[in-house]
Amino acid sequence: MSEYKAKVCIGGGAGFIGSHLGKRLKDEGYYVVVADWVTNKFMKNDEFCHEFKLLDLRDLSSAVEACKGCEHIYNLAADMGGMGFIQSNQSVLFYNNTMISSNMIEAARRVGVKRFFYASSACVYNESLQLDPNNPGLEESMAWPARPQDTYGLEKLYAEEMAIVYAKDFGFESRVARFHNIYGPRGTWKGGREKSPAAFCRKAYCSASDFEMWGDGKQTRSYTFIDDCVEGIIRLMRSDCKIPLNLGTEEMVTMNDFAKLTMKFNGKELPLRHIDGPEGVRGRNSDNKLIRKHLNWEPSVKLADGIARTNKWIGKQIEIDRKAGIDVSQYAVSQVCKQTEESLDSAYDLSNSSKKKGLNPLLLGGITAVVGGALGFLFAKRK
User: What secondary structure letter does DSSP report for 118?
Assistant: First the structure.
């Protein structure tokens, strides 16, 4: 390993953000180990890692295996998707992500890691502060007192605290970034797990008579291009900043205007058709005072520039499907992807899987009890 800067592990590294991060770190001379329960659909393994380990990080022994020998750990592993997916699968996501986050930080302790990065989300913020579409920006302190809109955000908030106290108690460095709607090429763009930028680009490309949208379109968001996200992760990981930071832009846009932007890149001006569907909060924007202070940097890619690149890539994917005989007109509408209980049934079958993998069932019960108690404690914390 002497020819490499360091050996690093990226939990969830076959995902959209993780694979882009892995590619960047590999290009910079790091030895990159990726652990994930799926393979990447848009990159070959050797593009973004030296070792790919197909592992279920809900299993502590698998998390330890992934992290063994690594100086830095980046935990981007999570069961997630766009708002429709998150709001339709809260129980499954709550369980899966609680176990993944807990196992990865405990694995970091066991292997003696030097630095640990946790990928959090703007979903941690108090819902009552996101009722106004003209949101001036969410400062990092506004996550407390805790009142996320859904359990996805609640788990992220709990896991932030776990990363912070583990680092304090066990003598390693932890860094936390709250992602604000990351988008770009080579990510999920269909199937129900995609986020709004990919969904809007797909609809703009395939719609013929109108543009379908959940809600009234007055809800607002800010979006962050993938290159800025990766740059921010690396800068934060190398900094001395020990507090969670927003990683997003302050360029807020309504969904109506966002739809018009994506249609512009496809030479269309279709009427908007608003339908019932999951909308999320009414207004969300990043406040970047702290990231400018601590990193002397902030994301800089303009939404129009990032969407132009994303739209071009998604258009190529649609044409691939068209040539394969798929009716791409179906991509003009959104769908909510509902998970089955299979992902839960496959995790920690105490009579079979845990014994095969060497996981102590008592340890699993202890982790679950501690996590459950801690999640309840969040609501009373810092009031």
Answer: E
d(CA 252, CA 194): 20
Q: What percent of the chain has pLDDT over 90?
A: 78
Please tell me the pTM assigned to this model. 0.90
- Spatial CB neighbours of 306, under 8 Å, sequence gap ≥ 6: 183, 184, 223, 225, 226
Over the stretch 190-211, which tens digit does the pLDDT of each residue have?
Answer: 988 899 999 999 999 999 999 9
Q: What average pLDDT score do residues 60-78 get?
A: 97
Superfamily of domain 7-378: NAD(P)-binding Rossmann-like Domain (3.40.50.720)
- Report DSSP letters for 10-56, one per residue: EETTTSHHHHHHHHHHHHTT-EEEEEESS--SSS-HHHH-SEEEE--
3 state DSSP class of 275 = strand
Evaluate the omega torsion of the peptide bond into residue 299 and state whether it is cis, within 30 degrees of 0.
no
Residue 360 reports pLDDT greater than 50: no
Compute and round to an integer the Cα radius of gyration of the chain. Answer: 20
Query: Which residues have a catalytic role annotated?
Result: 152
Query: How far lies 187's CA from each of 19, 110, 131, 273, in Å?
Result: 10, 32, 29, 26
Question: Are the C-beta atoms of 214 and 278 separated by less than 8 Å?
Answer: yes
What is the rounded CA–CA span in Å between residue 125 and residue 47? 35
Q: Give me the amino acid identity at 336.
A: V
What is the Cα–Cα distance from 1 to 109, expressed in whole angstroms? 21
At residue 1, the pLDDT reads 67
Q: What is the pLDDT of residues 237-258, one digit of tens each?
A: 999 999 999 999 999 999 999 9
Spatial distance between the Cα atoms of 22 and 42, rounded to a whole number of angstroms: 14
Whether pLDDT at 381 is above 90 = no
- Residue 268 corresponds to which tokens in the numbers above? 């269309």
Which tokens belong to 96? 């899966």
End-to-end CA distance of the chain: give it in Å, rounded. 48
The pLDDT value given to residue 369: 43
